[in-house]
Amino acid sequence: MRVMVGLVQRACLAILLSSTTVTLGVAQDEREFNLLTASVADIQDAVAAGALTYERLVQLYLNRIDTYDQQGPTLNTIIEINPRALEIARALDEERRTTGLRTPLHGIPIVVKDAVDVKDIPSAGGNVALAGTYPAHDATAIKRLRDAGAIIFLKGNLDEFNLGSQGLSSLGGQVLNPYDLSRNPGGSSSGPGVAVNVGFATLGVATETGASIRSPASNNSLVGIAPSQGLVSRTGAIAISYTQDRIGVHAKSVADAAIQLTYMRGFDAEDLFTWESLGKLDARPYTDYLDSTALRGARVGVFRDLFRQGEEFQPINALIEEEIQFIRHQGAVIIDGLTTGMDLVAFFPMARASVYEFKYVFDAYLKNRGPDTPVRSLEELIATGQYLRRLDRFFEQALAVESPDFDQEYLSRLENRLTVRQLIVDLMDRHNIDVLVHPFKSLAAPPLGTGDRGPRDNPVSAITGLPAIVMPAGVNEEGLPISIEFLGRPFSEPTLIRLAYAYEQVSHRRAAPTIAPNLEGEVFTYRSNR
Hints:
Largest sheet: 11 strands, mixed
Number of domains: 1
Structural class: alpha/beta
Radius of gyration: 22 Å
Strand content: 5-15%
CATH class: Alpha Beta
Number of helices: 16
CATH architecture: Alpha-Beta Complex
CATH topology: Amidase signature (AS) enzymes
Helix content: 25-40%
Mean pLDDT: 94
Strand order of the largest sheet: 2-4-3-7-9-8-13-14-12-10-11
Number of strands: 15
Low-confidence stretches: 1-7, 17-27
């Protein structure tokens, strides 16, 4: 990984430094910095100009957490704060002064879903039995971000052990939706989604088995990347399914998501699924693919299998149809009416295998977590009684699985996944498609306490291992965010990022919430040296 970081650093820094707006013919350009809209490039430009430090940046985020997460609307997104965050930021300030930027992520604060191990912050999966305990090592993805100079800042609340879709855990309580406190924030990566949305951190690390990266991204008007299976190591992450789980990105822009994903990817001998990435990546950062004109001539397929039928789904379906026409007007070639020929929505339940795998992947995680772990198996956890009681039924079903090796129902579900994956790839190949587009969900966030599944569920990317990016597509008549999904072939992240970025640059559909406005010191002007 250190080799890859070295290879991409110069190219990624060049993109970063060229991505801020400069007035031609003016040596110094006066700019406004706003913490709520600041990108990675904006932060690095303000630091370069001497108008901001990483220590000050962390303090601004801490002020917001105190005001809006622990008080005020009490959004309840954060379970733990790195107690050394300011100290780490000071050290990174000094490193930049003496030796320069390590990578574009140097000094950038990141919120990590509490299902992903961080060795210097208590990591518990949102569970009270594991509260206050530390894993022996960083998850591989976290180590790579830390090596890139990022500040591993916060642990975000979630659905306990990822088992849910409403943002509720025994340790962290209920995450709230910043657009409407009576609505579901999206799960299970609720904490990172809301935290990035309202300005508690710059970027977020999320995970999903079905839609848990993309659902909170959608409900929070964020860019969410669920990468190709095998692109990002899952070592050190609590998983539900060893054949399906992924680690991905929450960000406010495609450029920021592309930077973060660049430094998370790569082979890991401890997660052999990552062998699939070998020979399929190049050394260039994903920011090399940011092209605002990329929609011109792009072949975009409208994936009709994921437009749900029924009157209740039509308002959001209609909004996505408008976005497709908007994409057409940017010069894309729209190939409509694409279908696998099967009812994919009805097929989703027949491709889920989580209950068969959970006990085995969970026990393996606990045994490898290190000595500061009070329980070593699912059975031991159940014996403590320290977890949300609504998990009882799932736990009972998981314990009842003797061995999936010869279970025909389980093996059939794995075959079903491969079938759907091949049908989608064949569909794209047959029509020479660059990307498929469709509604991510055809209903917006449900009432709080209601799972964000059922008619909102769209696990097609997860069950196939195909990469997907959800993009803000505006709001519905209730003011709740909706998203359009870009779905691609395996390891087509460069194409997805290129087209999603082009769409973002002309659409400007992100809708920020108003419940957590700017605090003192978050907005200032400065003279840029760029």
